[in-house]
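Quick one:
INPUT:
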């Protein structure tokens, strides 16, 4: 009674080699980059770190999803420092969203995890969230309007990038031929715009691809998305100001 409460200590070799959550997350990211998300396992990560899986769980929580949450949080953190913020709110938003997409393109296997791991939310994201909200207040939006715009910006950028970097089919050549056969069989009378534009859309637009954004990035589409979102923010601000 009244004795000091014992705290858990790192396990054996993990303590000896200075294993930390940061080291685990960095090694996990490298493994996923090399072999893909489907082939990742805590057991293989333990072999790579030369520790038992129990030591990994001790640092990151009780499940693989805890580790995935840490990875997602790390991917979203440190996108932009305060001294990198532009005086123009439009430039700030365009730069920040572009940095997010650039980071995901550097780690395409991790992109599908972003947005799917709710536990990656919270205080670690505060710096970039504050930058976006400050830009929105500079635009003239406040309160719920700023929150709605924040959701549109983040949801749009994350959703686009996640789709862009979605897993490609295993047999790209077969998928390419099958896609071409079915698209070329469409009736021009029934689908005049799609059949006219398909040669340009072919593997360069959503729904008509067999490669993902690592091979064929959709740069101009992302640029238009960001421009549209920013102009939407400006339009909402004007309506707020004029009462229209």
């Amino acid at each position: 009674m009244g004795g000091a409460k014992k705290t858990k200590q790192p396990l054996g070799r993990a303590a000896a080699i200075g294993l930390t959550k940061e080291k685990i997350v960095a090694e996990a990211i490298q493994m996923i980059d090399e072999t893909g998300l489907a082939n990742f396992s805590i057991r293989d990560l333990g072999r790579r770190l030369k520790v038992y899986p129990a030591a990994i769980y001790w640092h990151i929580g009780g499940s693989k999803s805890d580790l995935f949450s840490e990875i997602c949080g790390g991917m979203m953190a440190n996108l932009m420092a305060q001294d990198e913020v532009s005086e123009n709110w439009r430039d700030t938003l365009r730069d920040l969203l572009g940095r997010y997409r650039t980071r995901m393109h550097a780690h395409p296997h991790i992109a599908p995890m972003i947005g799917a791991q709710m536990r990656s939310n919270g205080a670690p994201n505060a710096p970039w969230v504050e930058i976006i909200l400050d830009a929105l207040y500079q635009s003239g939006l406040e309160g719920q309007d700023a929150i709605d715009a924040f959701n549109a910006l983040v949801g749009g950028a994350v959703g686009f990038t996640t789709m862009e970097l979605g897993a490609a089919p295993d047999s790209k050549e077969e998928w390419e031929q099958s896609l071409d056969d079915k698209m070329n069989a469409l009736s021009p009378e029934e689908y005049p715009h799609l059949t006219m534009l398909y040669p340009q859309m072919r593997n360069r637009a959503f729904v008509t691809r067999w490669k993902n954004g690592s091979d064929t990035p959709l740069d101009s589409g992302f640029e238009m998305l960001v421009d549209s979102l920013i102009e939407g923010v400006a339009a909402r601000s004007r309506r707020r100001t004029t009462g229209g």
